[in-house]
UniProtKB/TrEMBL annotation:
Residues covered by the Transporter-associated domain: 488-568
BP-aspect Gene Ontology terms: proton transmembrane transport
GO terms for MF: antiporter activity
Keywords: Antiport, Cell membrane, Ion transport, Membrane, Transmembrane, Transmembrane helix, Transport
Annotated protein name in UniProt: Potassium/proton antiporter
Keyword presence, Magnesium: no
Pfam families linked to this entry: Na_H_Exchanger
Source organism per UniProt: Paramagnetospirillum caucaseum
Entry superkingdom: Bacteria
Coiled-coil segments on the chain, per record: none
Membrane topology: Multi-pass membrane protein
Locations listed in the record: Cell membrane
CC annotations in GO: plasma membrane
TM spans (from-to): 6-26, 58-75, 87-110, 122-144, 165-184, 196-215, 274-293, 299-323, 335-358, 364-387
Amino acid sequence: MIESMNTAILIVSGLVALSIFSSLLSFRIGAPLLLVFLCVGLVAGENGLGRIKFDNVHAAYMIGSVALAIILFDSGFHTSLKTFRAALWPATALATGGVVVTTAVVAVPVHFLLDFGWLESALMGAILSSTDAAAVFFLLRVGGIHVRDRVRATLEVESGSNDPMAIFLTLALVGLLVSKGPVSPVAIGMEFVTKFGIGAAAGMFGGGLIVLAVNKMGFERGLQPLAALSLAMALFAATEEMHGSGFLAVYVAGLVAGNARINAPETMRRFQDGLTWLAQIVMFLTLGLLATPAEFPAFAWQSLAVAAVLIFVARPLAAWICLLPYGFSRNETAFVAWVGLRGSVSVLLAILPMLVGLPQGRDYFIVAFLVVLVSLSLQGWTIGAVARFLGQIVPKRIGPVERLELEIPGARHELVSYRIVADSLVARGQRLPRWAEPSLVVRDRKSYSAHAAKGLKPGDTVFLFARPERVPHLDRLFASAAPAAEADSRFFGDFALEPGAHMKDLALLYGLPVEPADHEMTAADWLVRELGHDPGIGDRVPLGEVELIVRGLSWNDHISEIGLAVEPTRIDAPRLPVFQTGTELKAMLKRWMRKRA
């Protein structure tokens, strides 16, 4: 028995280590990392080199559910309220209406290609309707892709919040297939309201409880993140027992806890980063081991066709319909449509038909697995190229910055350390703000006070206190200069304008068609009004033959710098023939009505 236990430990730890070391190869060849984890599980499975036989669907579903709850709690914890507010309505539309549209569209090819009934086809559509939070968060946050703020926020909030809707829809359809009797639509609607209402309420209560426990219970520093996570898992299970959405509850709890004043937030973030990676690895490995590649050929071409409809028809249609009321441009909608990656959630939900013993239960799992492989390979591998093609990548306006943050328990300030590089603004004589007076300067391995140092020089290490929201401003002062090719006029305009400049002055200087009612407005206020949402770096509004561009934001998210492009830039090129905006559709309708008249 001891030998079998040691063998099991060796196998599990070896697979996890292999997945971690495979990440080095992933970064070299540009492969989506989560696809690598899935393939490691396939290779280790019974048809692969490892010959490990694993067919316990109950254990796989439990492992996947716990791992997904951990990932969603971490997703909420890392989502700022600013991001959540900026993307709340478009992301909610995608997470609800988008799931329903995707389910309906995908059901059509499934019905005709796989000989499923319409209800069974709808179940397959629901299984494939959710975008994968782990894949999206990895590609947007870890993969080095910096896209426009509103687009990034929408994708992040959607990927973290659409899993509960997909899970509810899948469970509802499984219940219909199992019951084989009439089910009232009113009953399903009431169950939806109950499940999501309980989940949201439990998440807010649980998030507050986590903050209270971490701040007031006096845990040893290393136990704080464990206490928070254990409470989150207890919340997940308790909410499910109350017939609420446990996945929604842990996401909301993470959102509440991550945006509250909580002790040792950086310690918690570092712990959760590592644990979330482990959860992703274990979940993808488990799902990879559960798959049997020998079964794939029988469903290969049908799954490829379903994946094509999902990627090129269902997701784009859902994105366009859901984002139409919110003023997204054609290219922004196209990028949101392309980043609808399918991942572990779809494979996890495909286990449910096997758990309840539905006919063709294994077929759901095989098709979902193959569609996920196609989605991660095609969309995950090309997301950077598509973002550049659609003009969604925002160039960095500052270069690398060497910063170290030190937590101060119970304080509203952070102790921040910077190493001064030769081409930074500080090294070139830029004065520090009054609120950022250095507390210590280290030069040539000797320590000096700010007064004794007599100015800052390249190579110095500076320690100073600052509020967390003001740290990005310090980054600009201490960072090296951005490469000229990145921060040039093609994206940020030919020159800068003062955000407080009045529109009447701009109209006189540049001959811009400004309405008389807008003459007394500042350029910043005019931009915010025309955008219709919180500004993000890179947002642009045409004004006559020029464009006004948001070049920078202050620490409190007000526009601090505006760019003016003398000629409209090609950032939003190419002009796609699809995804027309609401304004364009209204204009098309007016032209059609005039022709009819």
